[in-house]
Amino acid sequence: MPESLDEALAEVRSLLLGPDLSRAVAAGRQRGRTPSVVRAELRPVTIKAGPRLQIATFDGARPHTRNVAGAEADAAVDALLAEPFGNWHVETATATLQVRITKKGAAQVHRAAADRVPAPVAGHDRVKEHLLDPGDPLFAAVGGSAAKRRQVDAFLRALEATLPADLTGPLRVVDLGCGNAYLSFAAYRYLTGRGLAVDLVGVDVREDQRRRNTALAEQLDCAESVRFVAGSILDVEVADPPDLVLALHACDTATDEALARAVRWGARWVLAAPCCHHDIAAQLRRTEPPQPYDPLTRHGILRERFADVLTDSLRAALLRLHGYRVDVVEFVESQHTPRNLLIRARRSGSAGTPEQVADYRALVAQWRVAPALERLLGTAPEPRTPAEAA
Predict the structure, then answer these.
(1) pTM of the entire structure?
(2) Which of 33, 162, 186, 381 is the most exposed place for a label (fewest CB within 10 A)?
(3) Which domains does the chain have, with CATH numbers?
(4) Residue 67 forms beta bridges with which residues?
C-alpha cells in the first residue's frame, strides 16, 4: 500500500544520518520533474579528521564527491531529500529500505532485513551485494525463488560488465523473444536504479504474453516506460533503433533473427543467451564430416553438443565481421540452467580483417554448413583491402 511521501522520506533521513548506514542510492526521477543530479550515493567513511558521510553525485557529465559531518551533513541530506528522485535504496547493518515514488506522488515502501552472508569465510567477510534487491517488488510479482534470484543477479552482472560505468540516458532497450519478461523488468529496474532514463520494448510472438506483461508493467507502475508488442522478431517495428538489444533464451534460429536485427539497427550493445541449436545440428546430420573429424559427429549426443559449439562460434565470428567486439561467457552456473552461455557484443565500428573473413569462410566450407545468421544478414562481409584495413 502507498504511504505518505513525507513520512517515508523522514524514515530515509533517519537512516542516512544514523550510525548503522552501510550505503544508500538515490536515482530516477518523479513524474514531470527532473533532479539536478542523475544519481547520488551515500556511504560512511573514516578519514584522518574522523568519521564522515561521503556523498557522491553524478550530474550526467562527471562525478562529484565530498565528505561531510555534523550540521553540514544534515543540510546535505536535506538537500538531496528535496530533490525529485524517483527511488531511494538504503542499506544499513540490519535492514534494507526501498522507497519508490509513484506517479501520484505517494511512496511505495519495501522494508526487509539486511541480506548478509550467513557465515563469513576467512578473508571474505564482505556483505553479499545484489544488483537487484531480493526484496524488490518484482520478485513478489513473478515469484522470488532462490534460483530465479540467482539467474537475475547473474544476468544483471553481465549487463553491468557490458555497459560503461559512466553511461547516461536516455537508453533505448528492446528485448526480442521476451517471454514472461522477468529479465526485461529486472534490467529496467536495475538500469533506472543507476539513474538512467530507460525506454524498454519487449517483443514476443504470443498475444497472451503481451497482455500478461503489460498488466505486470501496470502493477509495477512502469507502463509508461516499459511496453510490450506481439509480433515476430524479424517483422516487429520500433519507433527508434535501440541502443541495447536483449535476446535471452530465444529458441534455435530466433537467436539468429535477434542478432540480425541488432546488427541492422546498429545497436551499441547486444546480450544474447542462445537456446537450442537445431539448425546446424540438422545440417551436420545430412553431411559427411571433414576428415579426420568423423568421431565428433558419429555419436548423436556428441554431434548435438558439437553443433552447439559450432553454431555459437559462427555467430560470434559473424558479429566480429560486422563490427562488434564479442565475448562468449558463462553467465550462470550450469547447475541452475543448462542454457548458461551468453554472447556479449559491443559495437566497435571496425569490420573484420581479411584474415578473420578468410577464417570464417574456411570454417563454413570445411563443415559444409549454412549459418542462419549469415543468411539473415545477406552474406559475410568482403575482406577489406590493405588500405581499408589501415
Answers:
(1) 0.68
(2) 33
(3) 5-113 (no CATH), 137-389 (3.40.50.150)
(4) 54
